[in-house]
Amino acid sequence: MQSGWSVPDSDGTAFTPMVVLELAPDTNEEAIKWLLSRIRDREQNGGVELLLEQTLTGGHDGQKGNPNVFLVGSTLERLLHGAEDVGLFKEFNDGSMRAFTYTNKDNFKDFQGDGDSLLSVAECQYIIKHKLDTLRAKDEANVPGYPKAKLYPGKSIIRRLQSKGILLQVFPLHDKEELKRLSFSWYKKVKFSSSSSFQPLNDIRRYFGEGLALYFGFLEYFTFAMLPMALIGIPYYLWDWEDYDKYVLFAVFNLVWSTVFLEVWKRSSASLAYSWGTLSRKKAFEEPRAGFHGVLGFNPVTGRKEPVYPNSKRQLKIYLLSVPFVLLCLYLSFYIMMIYFDMEHWALALYEVEPNFWTGLFLFVPSIIYAVVIEVLNLLYRYAAEFLTDWENHRLESSYQNHLVLKVLVFNFFNCFASLFYIAFVMQDMVLLRQSLATLLITSQILNQIMEAFLPYWLQRRRNKKAHKRLVKVMGDRELPLPEQAQLESDMSTYLGTFDDYLEQFLLFGYVSLFSCVYPLAAVLVVLNNITEVYSDAFKMCHVFKRPFAEPASNIGVWQVDIDSHAIVSKGIDIYSPLLLFKMNNDIIFVLMSSDLQLAFETMSVIAVVTNCALIGLSPQMKAYFLESDTQLILLVVCVEHILLAFKFILAFVIPDVPKQIQIKLARLEFESLEVLKKKMRPHLRKSWRPRRAQTLTSEEEEEERHRQPRY
Fold it and tell me: Where do the TM regions start and end (predicted)?
C-alpha cells in the first residue's frame, strides 16, 4: 500500500497507516478509550475491526502538539471484505466489470498473490472511511464523559463526535513517493502523446478517486472542444466581419458544437466510468447528514432510531425566508448593475468631452470594477446560501446539495449575465456588449486564478514556513517522520469538492455560447484560461490541500441527473431503483437502469440558441431586410429558433449516450444476472406453491379430492 510506513497496533499487528483521526486536545480520556475500543472491536460486537496507533504530533511556533492524533489502518483481509461491502467493481477474467466478492476473488484479473495489488490506496482509504461512518452506537445513552453528546441505538458515532466538536478532522494521508511520481507525470512536464488523454487520468483516479479524475477529464475535454470555436473565432475578430451571413454561419456552428460537445462528453464519461467500475455500481444508502437535527423518532426503512424533522417546517423555511432572500439578493444585484451603467455613461461622457489615450483607457474602468464586484457578490452570496441551506435542516446530503446548487446557480447566472442581457436586448448596444463581455471574462479569469491557485499557495507557504525550517534543521535530508508528516498535512487547507470548479466551467461555457455572435474571441480566452487551470488545479491538489477521500462517481456529480429508469417485475416482486443488487450465496446479481442528462450545461446550450437567434434578429443587417414590419422579423426569428432547437434535440437523440460496445457488455451482464436470479429463485418458488394439504391426506382423501377438482 503506502511505501515506507508501517506502525504496530496495540496488539502488535503491523499495518500501513492510511487515515489520520484527530480528536480535540482536551478530549476526555474515558471517551478516547471508549472510541478506540469500539473501532478495534469485532464486527459481531458492533465494531469495525480497524487498527489504530496513537502518535504525538510535534507542535510548532512554540505550541504543544496534539496528543490525540491516531493513525488508522486495516488488514488486507478486512479491506477485501470492505470492498465487497461498498460494492466496488473490478475487472473480471473475461474482461467485464463485475461487483467484487471475496469468495470469488481469484476470478478477478488484478487479484494476484495475496491480493495486495487489487485495491488502490484511494480505494483502501475510502473503505476505511466507510467503516468509520458505519460505526454505530449500541446501548450507550451518551458519549462517555460528555452527557450532552446524546446517543441512541443506530446513531453514527463519528457524526455525533463531529457535530459536538470532539472529533476535529478525519483525512487520508498522502503517499510521498506516489505523489512525486504523479506530480511529475501530471503537471511538471508537457506531455505530447498519442493516447486519448494528455493527463494521467488513470493515475489520478487511483490516487484521488473517480470524482476528481472525472473533473480533470472534463476540464481537458472542454478545453480541446473549445479549439474549433477558438480557431474560427480568431478570423472573425481580426477581420471584424459584420456581415449577417457570416454571423449566421457562426451561430449555427455554435449550436452544432454545443450539442455535439455535450453528447460526445456523455459517451467519453460513460467509457471512463465503465473502465473504472463505477458506471454500473450501486448507489449507497444515504444516511442522515451530520448537521441534521430533530426529535428522536423511528425510521421505518432502516428500523433504527434517528432524528425526525417535519417536512412542513422545512418547506415554510424555504418559501417564507430562503426564496424571499434569494429574490432580495437578485434585486440587489440588479441595483448594482444599474449603478454600473451609470458609471459607463459617465466614462463615455468624459471621453466625448476630451477624447485621448487616458480617457479611452478609462472607458474600461467601470467594467473592471463591476467584474470585481460580481466576484465579491458571488463569494458573499455563497456563504449566505450555505447558511440558509444549513438552517433549512435537510436530512440527506443529496437534498442539501440540490438546494444549495439551485440557490447558487440562480444567483450566479443572474449576477454574471444580467448586465450582458440588458445591454443586448434593452440598450441594444453591440459595441458596449462586446467591450463588457471581454472585460468581464478577462477580469473574472484573473481573479479566479489568484483566488484558486496563488492565494492558497501563498497562505500555505506562509503557514508552514517556520515549521519547514524547524524540520529541516532537525532532520536534514532524512525522510520526514510519520508524526511530523501527519502534522503538516493536518494544517493544510481542506479541499471542499469540485462544485466550485464545475461552476467556473459552467460560467465560462455561458460566456462562450450565449454571445458568440458578438464576441467570437471568447473561446480563445477560455482555452488559455483552462490550460493554466489544469496546471494550477493539479498543483493545489498535490501541494496546497489535504488529500481528499475518494468519492466513487459515474458522472460529473450534481451537473448530471438521472432522468430514466424502469420498474422490473419478477416473480411478483416489484423493483424500482437506478441499480438493483441481489446478494445470494455470495453471488452479486445486478440490474442496471441509468440514463444521464447534462442538465446544467444542456440548459445553458438551449438558452444559447434563443440568445444567438435574438442577437441575429437585432443586427442592423437583418433589420435592413424588414424595414416596414417588425412583426415579420420577430416571427422569422422565432421560427428559426424553433427549427434550430428541434434540430438540436434530434441530434441529441440520434447520438447515443453510451457507446455501443459498452451497451452490449452491460446488456450481457444484465442477462447473466437475471438468469442466475431465476435459478436462485426457482426452488423457492416451487416450494412456496407446493400444496400443503397433500402432505397429510390419506389415499381415500386424495381420491375424493381428485373428484372435487374441476375438469377442463
Answer: 212-235, 247-265, 318-341, 361-383, 404-425, 506-528, 599-621, 633-655
166-202 per-position pLDDT tens digit: 999 999 999 888 998 998 888 876 665 545 678 899 9
- pTM of the predicted protein model: 0.83
**Please, what is the Cα angle at 93 between 92 and 95, to 5 degrees?**
70
Give SS3 for 321: helix
Half-sphere exposure of 64 (CA within 13 A, CB side): 6
Burial of 386 (C-beta count, 10 Å sphere; 0-12/13-18/19+): middle
464 Cβ contact list (under 8 Å, min separation 6): 488, 491
Structural contact between residues 135 and 162, judged by C-beta atoms closer than 8 angstroms: no
Would you place residue 99 in the very low, low, confident or very high pLDDT band (cuts 50, 70, 90)?
confident
Structure-block grid coordinates of residue 25 = 486536545
b/e for 657-669, b at 16 or more Cβ within 10 A? bbeeebeebbeeb
The residue type found at 319 is Y
Per-residue pLDDT at 468 exceeds 60: no
Inter-residue contact 191 to 185 (CB < 8 Å): yes
CA-CA distances (angstroms) from residue 622 to 52, 232, 239, 388, 631?
73, 22, 20, 47, 13
Q: Angle 344-348-349 (CA atoms, 0-180°, nearest 5)?
A: 115
91 vs 86, 106, 117, CA distance in Å? 16, 12, 13
Query: Comparing C-alpha atoms, which of 388, 404, 416 is closest to residue 330?
Result: 416
Cα first-last separation, the chain: 70
CA distances from 311 to 297, 308, 316, 395 (A): 14, 9, 9, 10
Look at residues 540, 1, 560 and name the one whose alpha carbon lies nearest to residue 266: 560
Looking at residue 629, the DSSP 8-state letter turns out to be -
Q: Pairing mode, if any, of strands 19-23 and 14-15?
A: unpaired
